[in-house]
Amino acid sequence: MPGTWAHNEKVPGTFTLRKIMTMFRGTWPALVTPFTDENTVNIAVVRDLVEYLLSKQVDGFYVCGRTGQGLSMSVAERQLIAETVMTQVRERVPVVVHVGSMSIQDALILTRHAAQIGASGISSIIPPYYAEMPQIVGYFQAVANAAPHLPFFPYLFGFPKVVELMQSLLVTLPNVMGTKYTGPDMYEFQQVVNLRQENWYIFSGMDEQCLFARMSGATGSIGSTMNFMPRAYRNIHACFEQGKLAEAMEWQQKANKVTETLQTYRFMSGMIEVMRLLGFDCGSLRLPDFPLSAEDREKLRGDLQTIAFDQLT
Asked: Considering the chain, what is the average pLDDT of its residues?
């Protein structure tokens, strides 16, 4: 039954339902992971970036996902980032840790670690190469059961049976509290929203669809571009909640122009350059990603100036 699983705030990684109702909403950057010139995690920049985004009044953080290059890092590096973010945040906003891995043992280690450090929730991708429902359900069950008192948000991206999958998980896993859904299909998105009426928190993972997802029942958004356009997305959410849909659409269209510009290059590589423009040297992406050429960096900077990017940060 929804909302019947145990909560005890004296136990790390557990929360009352009343607290949960206020946690999983609004604008959540899928946090970029900065690296040093030696290709190690740049803890100093992680701290600075978290503090900067908190000053922009973001509502939470999603760490070590695709944007954070979680699958390109070791377990120890991912634990270090999660610990650093938790320490810097100091309970000012919730933090969801992405624990997904091709290695189930690594995923379980990361899940237990997230609970130990007091994360607000965990999330996981569907492991690549696996497409059969029993395989995916079994994987998610193992992850969720490794921290049974911690809200679990499966990350749904590119799977053809999303609604069936979520129905299967809801039957067996009481700590499934929602999902991060990345995709343009708002009909399917709304089907996921309608799977439960209470204690159900659906994040849109496709930044370009933030407003449309809110109109379809999303409670929040998790995305890459919220690292450098938090103002735009905070205004989208605020305008929607105030019934100012035309103004919300204006902010969405402005943000989408920036996203479209980045997509004409390589999105992840372009994002690192944008962070550098804001004063955050995130180093180089880990392979198989790679940086923009010097020529493309200059061209991107010029393109951003023509679309008034600085008004969205």
From this structure: 92
* Residue 222 annotated as part of some ligand binding site: yes
Distance CA 77, CA 81 (A): 6
Sheet with strand 26-29: strands edge to edge: 26-29, 220-223, 201-204, 178-182, 152-157, 121-125, 95-98, 61-63
- Judged by DSSP in three states, 16 sits in coil
Answer yes or no: 155 catalytic: yes
Q: Which of 62, 139, 155, 181 is catalytic?
A: 155
Query: Is 67 annotated to bind ligand?
Result: yes
> Bridge partners of 98?
123
Amino acid at 285: L
The CATH number for 65's domain is 3.20.20.70
19 is catalytic: no
Q: Average pLDDT of 91-106? A: 97
What is residue 3's predicted lDDT score, i.e. its pLDDT? 33
User: Quick one: pLDDT at residue 7?
Assistant: 36
Position 20 scores a pLDDT of 60
Boundaries of domain holding 124: 17-245
Asked if residue 263 is part of any domain, the answer here is no
Domains identified in the chain, total number: 1
Q: Could you tell me if residue 107 is inside a domain?
A: yes
Let me know if residue 75 belongs to a domain: yes
pTM (whole model) above 0.85: yes
Question: Does the residue 108 lie in any domain?
Answer: yes
pLDDT digits (tens, 9 = 90+) for 152-186: 999 998 888 999 999 999 999 999 999 999 999 99
Catalytic residue among 56, 139, 180, 201: 180
